[in-house]
Amino acid sequence: MLISHDREKLIEIVKFFAQQTKWLGKTKLFKLLYFLDFTHFRETGRSVTGMDYFAWKMGPVPVELFQEIEAPGDEWSGQVSFESIPVQRGTMLKVDALSDFDSTHFSKRELRIMQALADQFKNSVADDMVEATHLENLPWHKVFEVEGRKQALIPYSMSLLQQDQELMGDVINDRAEMLSAIRA
Fold first, then answer.
1. Which of 1, 17, 87, 155 is deepest in the core (most CB within 10 A)?
2. pLDDT given for residue 150 in this prediction
3. Is residue 162, in this structure, part of any structural domain at all?
4. What confidence score (pLDDT) does residue 6 get?
5. How far apart are CA 40 and CA 44, in angstroms?
6. Comparing C-alpha atoms, which of 149, 16, 163 is closest to residue 95?
7. Within a domain: residue 165?
8. Residue 56 is part of which domain span?
9. Which pTM does this prediction carry?
10. pLDDT score of 167
């Protein structure tokens, strides 16, 4: 039986980024999660959190988590706090870890990607993160700007290079042909 620890991993990832980066708010968190999931998908064919991301104006947003942190459930209690604080341009939802990060359910690859992202964006603010996700040819840009599909789902397959997408298509077609031959 395959056991998924997506929920526990999500909470631990939020704690990790809260402990390893500065100025972690909702926008920065969403972008770090997006980079983690899409980088891991590009390398392995699966995301880390299992969340879907949508192309909103300010970049990729995991809508389920966006809605959830407005009123976090009991599983967040004692793990992570979400607090509105005043900032120069209004308010910010500040994310803090309330307990230590637990790496139990993570692979070495997942931990490596998380650490690389934390190092790269340690001192970044929300505006830097928005800019990083809006770069030309990245999945958000393709969906939101090129295709004009505002608030649409960003397919994980867009994280693959064009030649990788073609290779995956060839593999799927080869398997389909093989299955057809076996059934015949």
1. 17
2. 97
3. no
4. 83
5. 6
6. 16
7. no
8. 6-157
9. 0.86
10. 47
What are the φ/ψ torsions at residue 71 (nearest 5 degrees)? -145, 75
Q: What is the pLDDT of residue 88?
A: 86
CB 61 within 8 Å of CB 54 = yes
SS3 letters across the chain: CCCCCHHHHHHHHHHHHHHHCCCCEHHHHHHHHHHHHHHHHHHHCCCCCCCCCEEECCEEECHHHHHHCCCCCHHHCCCEEEEEEEECCEEEEEEEECCCCCCCCCCHHHHHHHHHHHHHHCCCCHHHHHHHHCCCCCHHHHHHHHCCCCCCECCHHHHCCHHHHHHHHHHHHHHHHHHHHHHC
Number of domains in the chain: 1
Cα–chain center distance at 111: 14
In a domain, 27, yes or no: yes
Q: Tell me if 182 is assigned to some domain.
A: no
Residues with pLDDT less than 50, the chain: 1-2, 163-169
